[in-house]
Amino acid sequence: MSARGSLAHVARYVPGKPIEEVQRELGLAHVVKLASNENAYGCSPKAVKAVAEEMAKAALYPESVSPLLEEKLATKLGVRAEQIVFGNGSDEIIALLTRAFLDPGDEVVMADPTFTRYEQNAAIEGGAVVKVPCRDGVHDLDAMLGAITARTKLVFVCNPNNPTGTVVGADALRRFIERVPARVLVVVDEAYYEYVTSADYLQTIPLLGAHPNLVVLRTFSKIYGLAGLRIGYGAMHPDVASVLHKVRGPFNTSRLAQAAALASLDDADFVAMCREQNAQERDRVARSLAEMGLRVYPSQTNFILFEVPGSGEEVARRLLRHGVIVRAGEGLGAPGTVRVSLGTPEENDAFLRALTHSME
Q1: What kind and span of H or E run contains 69?
Q2: Residue 193 CA, distance from chain mean position
């Protein structure tokens, strides 16, 4: 049996190593995982309670469009309910966009490096990926605009960007959105939106009314701490949402995920605590890395990308032997770097100690 021809050059997504796997392989009793940009502080107690209560209905299919969550989130964002599409993580919305809007040979413009799932999903659908190099880890929006052709269907802007953690300036992104042809979908992926503390950051949701080709992606996986339940969303024009509903599965988010997300929206204190703790640790870890003589990319996320002498894979292997799991930049399109997720102060201290030892 032969698979679709478009899959011939599609690489399988490789996530960060699980703690249990590292413990088995290396015989370590204690392992710190700082590889997958998870929330070190867990999720809201309200979400835990909601999931426990929803388990009584686990035998029943969920409502297909998550109406209660849809209504509450629409009110929070200031949009209409029909402008929101939920997915099995915002990752699924990326897949739905490429499935719905790409014909073989259509072009998709993105930064390099950026979130690898854009390229993978475009390639699965037979799309032609056009990569535009970042400048100092930041999207080069002028060059990306210049890369748009008559065959371009989608443009992805990851803001903040994964794996670099950087953001583009508010005015620059606004001008970019205004200049992209109306026939091209501009997908702004804001998975790390809630972690941003920079004042120079564009609020994109209010622009949806003036730009029907704008799609904004966000998730409950990061600051809300629901990565294991897989629920994210896109906000967009109702016509775009209608197309995505044609290609999504009827029960693509579970009862438990819907209940947890709904409860999470009622816990602003938890989100504020996570943002504050993350910002403090982000600054502290970045300073420590700089004091080691390492170049650190300015992050607005819950991870930091930094350059290392030689191979990022080798540094990641050394850290693994010390019981710390990170991501080598080679697998993220950024060779010679390491991406470390921010953990608790104790976990970050363990990382910094391990890094010091591994680079001696």
Answers
A1: helix 67-77
A2: 9
